[in-house]
Amino acid sequence: MLKSSLIAAVFAMGASGASYAKTCQLTIDGNDAMQFSTKELTIDSDCKNVSLTLKHTGKLPAAAMGHNWVLTKSADMQAVVAAGIKAGLASNYVPKGDAKVIAATKLVGGGQSDTVTFSVEKLQQGGDYAFFCSFPGHSAMMSGKFVIKKPAA
Ligand code: CU
């Protein structure tokens, strides 16, 4: 009797935890000086999804000073930058169907913004991830670390 009610209680806790998917909000700006507003974005370990909004605070059009926000493992960044240049403007400088791309916004020009929502459940807490703009020539200045905190010990 006691044992079965304990199992029921544990099961109920597990079920309610699984149905709660926390979405964490992030924002970042890009400007006409080819800069992001931050070099590091950090999320808590309990985030299941991330909703990131990129805002272009400048005035130049996307064809001249477009920005996007692309997330990869740090080790994959250069390969995705190169593939993005080949993909071209029509593909927002992001290679289509490339598994190395964890998330990407579209390319925005001055005054525009875009939001991408993605799951971080399969990413590694404390792992080495990079975000960058894949517009040709921008990633050297426009890149940073994407940090998923480890749960408190
Ligand atoms: Cu850019």
Explain what this protein looks like in three dimensions.
The chain starts with a helix and ends in a 5-residue tail after the last strand. The model is unreliable at 5-19 (pLDDT under 50). It has one domain (20-149): Cupredoxins -  blue copper proteins (Immunoglobulin-like, Sandwich), CATH 2.60.40. The protein is globular and about 45 Å long. It is an alpha/beta fold and 153 residues long. The strands form two sheets. A five-stranded mixed sheet has the order 2-8-7-4-5, with no helix packed on it. It has three helices and eight strands.
In short:
It contains three helices and eight strands. By secondary structure, the protein is an alpha/beta fold.
What name goes with the CATH superfamily?
Cupredoxins -  blue copper proteins
Number of strands: 8
In the predicted model, the low-confidence regions spanning at least 5 consecutive residues are 5-19
* Proportion in helices: 10-25%
Total of DSSP H or I helical runs spanning 4+ residues = 3
What would you call the shape?
globular
**Reported CATH architecture:** Sandwich
Write down the CATH class: Mainly Beta
What is the distance, rounded to the nearest whole angstrom, between the alpha carbons of the first and last residues?
34 Å
Quaternary assembly: single chain
Overall mean confidence score, pLDDT: 91
Which molecules are bound besides the chains?
Answer: copper (II) ion
Structural class: alpha/beta
Q: Any idea of the CATH topology?
A: Immunoglobulin-like
Radius of gyration from the CA trace?
Answer: 19 Å
Number of domains: 1
Strand content: 25-35%
Order of helices and strands: HEEEHEHEEEE
